[in-house]
Amino acid sequence: MSEAVREAPKKERPEFRNIHVTELSNYRLPLAGLVSILHRISGLTMFLLLPFVLYLLEQSLRSEISFAYYQGIVSYPLVKLIILALVWGYLHHFCAGCRHLIMDMHIGLAKEQARHSAASVLAVSLTLTAIIALKLFGVF
């Protein structure tokens, strides 16, 4: 090797690492990625809470007294917020699942189309959740 090649400064190459949990706040996730992660979180939450929800349904259907008991529990605002969070999780999971099924048919895979479909998933799920919240809190 010649002297010029040996003495030439080496360029610093970028270091690519996996993202650590402590660095998540510094990472800018695209909207489609956020929708995808929320889809997974909502699916896991529904899967884990399904036995509990089915148990509550079974208990509420045992008699008129047990139904009235659980109806009284649901009247508390904190319980209504928990129910609303579960409703949002279901609606988001459903809308994002439809988006993923459409994308599995190779429709809307371009970057701009994927961004628009992710935004529409959030808009539709949040709008439907707001409508249900109005009904749940007795506005209509």
UniProtKB/TrEMBL annotation:
CDD domains: SQR_TypeC_SdhC (cd03499). The keyword Iron applies. It comes from the Bacteria. It comes from Duganella qianjiadongensis. Its main location: membrane. This is Succinate dehydrogenase cytochrome b556 subunit. Part of an enzyme complex containing four subunits: a flavoprotein, an iron-sulfur protein, plus two membrane-anchoring proteins, SdhC and SdhD. The complex can form homotrimers. The chain crosses the membrane at residues 37-57, 69-91, 118-137. Pfam families: Sdh_cyt. Membrane-anchoring subunit of succinate dehydrogenase (SDH).
